[in-house]
From TrEMBL:
<comment type="similarity">
    <text>Belongs to the hexokinase family.</text>
</comment>
<dbReference type="GO" id="GO:0006006">
    <property type="term" value="P:glucose metabolic process"/>
</dbReference>
<keyword id="KW-0547">Nucleotide-binding</keyword>
<dbReference type="GO" id="GO:0006096">
    <property type="term" value="P:glycolytic process"/>
</dbReference>
<feature type="domain" description="Hexokinase C-terminal">
    <location>
        <begin position="11"/>
        <end position="186"/>
    </location>
</feature>
<comment type="pathway">
    <text>Carbohydrate degradation; glycolysis; D-glyceraldehyde 3-phosphate and glycerone phosphate from D-glucose: step 1/4.</text>
</comment>
<dbReference type="GO" id="GO:0005829">
    <property type="term" value="C:cytosol"/>
</dbReference>
<dbReference type="GO" id="GO:0005739">
    <property type="term" value="C:mitochondrion"/>
</dbReference>
<dbReference type="Pfam" id="PF03727">
    <property type="entry name" value="Hexokinase_2"/>
</dbReference>
<dbReference type="GO" id="GO:0008865">
    <property type="term" value="F:fructokinase activity"/>
</dbReference>
<dbReference type="GO" id="GO:0005524">
    <property type="term" value="F:ATP binding"/>
</dbReference>
<keyword id="KW-0067">ATP-binding</keyword>
<dbReference type="GO" id="GO:0001678">
    <property type="term" value="P:intracellular glucose homeostasis"/>
</dbReference>
<keyword id="KW-0808">Transferase</keyword>
<dbReference type="GO" id="GO:0004340">
    <property type="term" value="F:glucokinase activity"/>
</dbReference>
<keyword id="KW-0324">Glycolysis</keyword>
<dbReference type="GO" id="GO:0005536">
    <property type="term" value="F:D-glucose binding"/>
</dbReference>
Length: 186
């Protein structure tokens, strides 16, 4: 769509609920092209890059949280790259990290008794939305009003300053990893 207004555009990228990319390639470099070689002498290549890593080439950078997201998805073993960078999965990765720290008693100390209720969203798949990741990341300073609001929304009452620092760090690291992977893909 951008190429209509900006003819020099040579790539297309979707980073949203899912992810994909495409680019313009010269016809003479596309060995599988059976169509005309008339003008224009270029084609758009759909990379379907969400499936990058399905052959195991990303296994060395996948975490146990990535593996859990994959196994509980509707398409285990498929769309590996997409599950590491897209909006459909980032919130779940953050939830799994928070839950792991909670269960190992490294987060929300002193409030353990109030988090045993498995109806609390943090215990349920999809209970931490990707929009929460963005909201938490916007906090600046030491009040953590957005982080506290998100944690309250998922049933975690009266989080400490340290809890907020850790949750924000988790959100920022998951986002940063997604951005770096997307950048590496480009």
């Amino acid at each position: 769509a951008c190429a209509y207004k900006e003819p020099a555009t040579s790539i297309g990228l979707i980073l949203g609920t899912g992810t994909n990319a495409c680019y313009i390639e010269d016809l003479d470099k596309v060995g599988t092209w059976n169509g005309d070689h008339d003008e224009p002498k270029q084609v758009i290549i759909n990379m379907e890059w969400g499936a990058f890593g399905d052959n195991g080439c990303l296994n060395h950078i996948r975490t146990k949280y990535d593996e859990e997201v994959d196994l509980s998805s509707i398409n285990p073993g498929q769309q590996t790259f997409e599950k590491m960078i897209s909006g459909m999965y980032m919130g779940e990765i953050v939830r799994l990290i928070i839950l792991d720290l909670l269960q190992r008693e490294l987060l929300f100390l002193g409030h353990r008794d109030t988090y045993g209720d498995y109806k609390t969203p943090i215990y349920n798949r999809g209970g931490f939305y990707t929009k929460f990741v963005s909201t938490v990341e916007t906090d600046e300073g030491i009040k953590f009003s957005n982080t506290r609001r998100v944690l309250e929304d998922i049933g975690i009452r009266n989080p400490t300053f340290d809890d907020c620092v850790i949750v924000q760090h988790i959100c920022r690291q998951v986002s940063k990893r997604a951005a770096r992977l997307a950048g590496a893909g480009m």
